[in-house]
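Review session, final week

We close the course with one last complete record, chosen because it touches almost every idea we covered. It is protein-serine/threonine phosphatase, a protein from Aphis gossypii with 493 residues. Go through it on your own first, then we will talk.
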Amino acid sequence: MNGECKLDYREADITHAERLKEEANVHFSAKRYADAIDFYSKAIAMCESSSTKPHNFAAYYANRSFAHSKTEAYGYALADATKAIQLDPKYLKGYYRRATAYMSLGKFKEALKDYEVVVKALPNDKDANRKYTECNKLVKRLAFEKAISVEDTKSVSEQIDIESMNIENDYSGPCLNDGKVTLEFMKELIKTYREQGKLHKKYAYKILLDVKKYLEKQPTLVHINIKSDEKFTVCGDIHGQFYDLLNIFELNGLPSDTNPYLFNGDFVDRGSFSVECIFTLFGFKLLFPDKFFMSRGNHESVTMNRMYGFEGEVKSKYSVEMANLFTEVYNWLPLAHCINRRVLVMHGGLFSKDNVTLKDIENIYRNRQPPEEGLMCDMLWSDPQDAPGRSPSKRGVGVQFGPDVTKSFVELNNLDYIIRSHEVKAKGYEEAHDSKCITVFSAPNYCDTMGNKGAFITLEGKCLKPKFTTYTAVSHPPVKPLMYANSLVNLFC
């Protein structure tokens, strides 16, 4: 009798878990990915606590893996897909999901191996063959590029001859004044971009070369001093959402000597107006070099740009040469800014080890692609967590750090708090770790799907108390996000 009761209890658990999974599927279909993850997790926990598992238990992990990918938690997605494969090595969707996570992390060879498993099992599956073929092309292309690269070759910036570039008679866009950016030029540039016009390549190259020349002289950690009665604005990720960038300027005023800004990385990718965003920001950087600041984000890198659209957009609107020049410029972007020596601003977050000082940040060599570990990696990729201590990153790169880590860091460096970006937040911002760690994200309705608000922070020099302004997305021309992304991204999104 007792055995029969126990069996019924187990069956009830499995039935309940299956209902939770189905509810999670409903949330996923409605793009409520956080809710979907929550319900998948409850279903998994119920099954894990039972000695009897459902026959399709691997699907629970594979489904949660896909939901994690939708929230850009690619480290968690990778772990869940791997668990699904361990539970059922013949479960092909597990290989699909793991390949998606690998692709998102730029681990193309690993993704290819998983796609190969699926193709061998399903040789007539058109979708599997398409993904395998596209991934194989990318791996071969990267291998070819590596083979023909020579270290002592001249940089792109050394090979560009601007003087030989002619301005066509029918060009009606903005023109640099004696090679210099002016306020009139910036207003005309914004007007041109708003109307979906294009900046002439001669002026585009000139801006990039001038920005590179300026950034090369800047330190890795830039100190910013603002006066006691001065307003200073910090913006987070823009991600190619040009019309939302213009909305920030509508709400808060154009950058000027009396209206300084800091944009905290991820200016490009995903949104399909990244070229417009970056030239607008670089233009203001040249116009107000001491009042307009830009930090590097994890998307100012070759791997991210190749996958999520910026490289493809630059090639479409200009050339391969210009895409390569952008890489050289991005390598010189500062990694952090410190406001009045009291507020540190960086794109990602804090570090995988204790006792990191501002001096350590100043000494980081930044003229390179982001490494997969170390201080530079952490600054571009890490995220806060509620629990104390540190955990492996949900993204698969960097680390997650708790309130105790933040507290120790700000105390060691005599800071009031830190500002970072890097994460979508429903309100556009979040105060965490006893308000010592503030997130600001400035791309509303991220990728036209997330429904989040955008936000920016204004500070006054005297007290440096953050004031948050939130806003919703504005309309933009009918160009979809990720339009220029690698074809594989659109296949697995």
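Two points worth writing down before the exam:
Residues 2-29 form the longest helix (28 residues).
The two ends are 50 Å apart (CA to CA).
Good luck, everyone.
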